[in-house]
Automatic annotation (TrEMBL):
Protein name from the UniProt record: Glutamyl-Q tRNA(Asp) synthetase
Keywords: Aminoacyl-tRNA synthetase, ATP-binding, Ligase, Metal-binding, Nucleotide-binding, Protein biosynthesis, Zinc
Species: Siccibacter colletis
Motif 'KMSKS' region per record, residues: 229-233
Lineage: Bacteria, Pseudomonadati, Pseudomonadota, Gammaproteobacteria, Enterobacterales
Enzyme class, spelled out: ligase
Cofactor dependence: Zn(2+)
SUPFAM superfamilies in UniProt: Nucleotidylyl transferase (SSF52374)
Entry superkingdom: Bacteria
Amino acid sequence: MTASQPYTGRFAPSPSGELHFGSLIAALGSYLQARAQRGTWLVRIEDIDPPREVPGAAATILRQLEHYGLHWDGEVLWQSQRHDAYREALAWLRSHGKSYYCTCTRSRIQQLGGYYDGHCRTLGHGPENAAVRLVQQQPVLSFQDELRGEIRVNEALAREDFIIHRRDGLFAYNLAVVVDDHFQGVTEIVRGADLIEPTVRQIALYQQFGWPVPRYVHLPLALTADGNKLSKQNHAPGLPTGDPRPIIINALHFLNQRVTKEWQDLSLEDLLARAVAHWRPETIPDEAPVNPAFSNAPL
């Protein structure tokens, strides 16, 4: 990010269920980082995978963000309305020899150990019953995380020709997120640590397109009592619909941020304003606190 380029952050949930405490950590962290920089905070609904979507979830997510005082700038961007942009990106990669059609099955790749071996790269397959893979010309073996420092990933993952358009006709997450973050001028991406591995693929795509790469901050994940990620797949309870302030306090404690003792005397707006004023990303822990709180009561 250059001095002339204003800060732009974003929160980009998929409508596969309502927001839970883990989602709130990502939303609040990205919101506070953007507001502390006096920047723009955008919301994008990543609705490009209809089989995984829950009817009404997108509207619920937006209501939850508003209920918790996390008001975004501008209009919400919907990935379902961005197909032309993704097709244009795919066409550009194809015309520059940076992608190819692949007919390999998932079972074949599993037999290889889980990572694709480039089998179809020179076979000249057509689009029928085929996925599109990126020719991995610029593998990214590590990247600098603003919270965690240098992060190195599995070399096989970094060197893989990964899918950018699925066999079923859906656009792959890595392609869509890069195209949209570039389109929206996102300068820093603050999100959960479960997305560390895809980061190297996304950086590789930025480099293939010749686009500037945003900075990255990966926040600790909220965990269940048995140590699993709190997620929609694990049936995490949705955010409470009552007073949002105690949950915001829990989230601030989780992120190891300063919390005023008199928070109960503050409105939600004032509580968030103080959180912005006292925001210290350098104090965020790399890993989740031992006993993260998911209840309605503050720690």
